[in-house]
Amino acid sequence: MKLSEELNARGFVNQISADSLSEIVDGQKRTIYHGIDPTADSAHAGNFVVWMLLRHLADSGHKVIFLVGGGTGMIGDPKPDVERPLSDPEVVAERVEKLKAQAKRLLDSEEIIFVNNYNWLGSLQLIPFLRDIGKHFTVNELIKKDAIANRLSGEAGISYTEFAYPLLQAYDYLTLCKEYGCDVQVGGSDQWGNIVAGVDLVRRVEQKRVYALTVPLIIDKATGKKFGKSEGNAVWLDPEKTSPYAFYQFWLNASDESAVDYLKLFTLLPLSEIESIAQTFASDPSSRIAQKTLAFETTKFVHGEAQAQAASRVSDILFGNGDVSSLSHEEKQMLLQNAPAYEVTKDESIVDLLVAAALASSKREARTFIESGAVTLGAEKITDPEHQISLSAGELLPLRRGKKNIVILNKK
Q: Which residues, in sequence order, are CB contacts of 47 under 8 Å at separation 6+?
């Protein structure tokens, strides 16, 4: 299968500045760049899809330039509704280094070059820039860009600082074309206008044809919501911001409508294997094989196989019938950090524990739950209201009421 066919089949392609994707990726090996501004010190799931595209391109032999916007991050790409706050240079510099380290680990290729656009934007002189670059842009073109048009028609308006952002991104493309022979820029679909501005600038200044490629915004088909910080549901790639367990759970909770699509975009599994998973999932959605595979593969890719295994085992205990006694010390800590827990300090009756652990509102309700067969301790269904519970130091024991209500009993 040609690379263009695989990228289309996986759903990576939204807009291209060529007659076909094959013209861009199937012939000569190109130098392809993607830029990210350090608006945070970690990438999130909204960025992740472009990073996966870069991984496919690099694995196919294309040279990839990963640009972290230490310069453009001082300005800010125009948001459609409000002016971005300006970040302190020291903060931007710290974020640049963290993003660079994160991308290095995940992209994992000898064919990737890392650059910081502050290295050339920081030394620009205003008059030469306006004469040599600004003359190639018209205000008429700039105000047609979606984010700028929205700001001009709203109450917030737009500062000249953000208005000039497309010129800086276009200048990045021109610089990388001159220094590295870069001839393709990739990004999210919301970056199309900025990327095309760079394509046009390179054509006018260098009389050279270069290309643009964008990926679609990723939408949950069940909710219509997109990934990303602006939606308030950011899932970070940094384990300090989103724990490996929470990361695993995010993908495990993918909707049935979107799970197979996400497998194509966010994992490196072969399409043939994904098709087999899709068929099994279609015949038995209750197996949740698509979500389980998605959660494990994405967590393994971002956090490593050990963390993926741990998250899977802990998830089995919280939502299945996993065995707590088989967990490692680290897995037990993950369980306690991510599940409701209650410390048992003495021998207690099951009725008292249900109330103390907030699984029942009263002793009467606790007895009703027990007598109806709704209470499970570990793997044992408890039917005797007089049952006494005793834990050894360091022991963990799941106490369930029904299928969805669980508390991890523990003793120090």
A: 36, 237
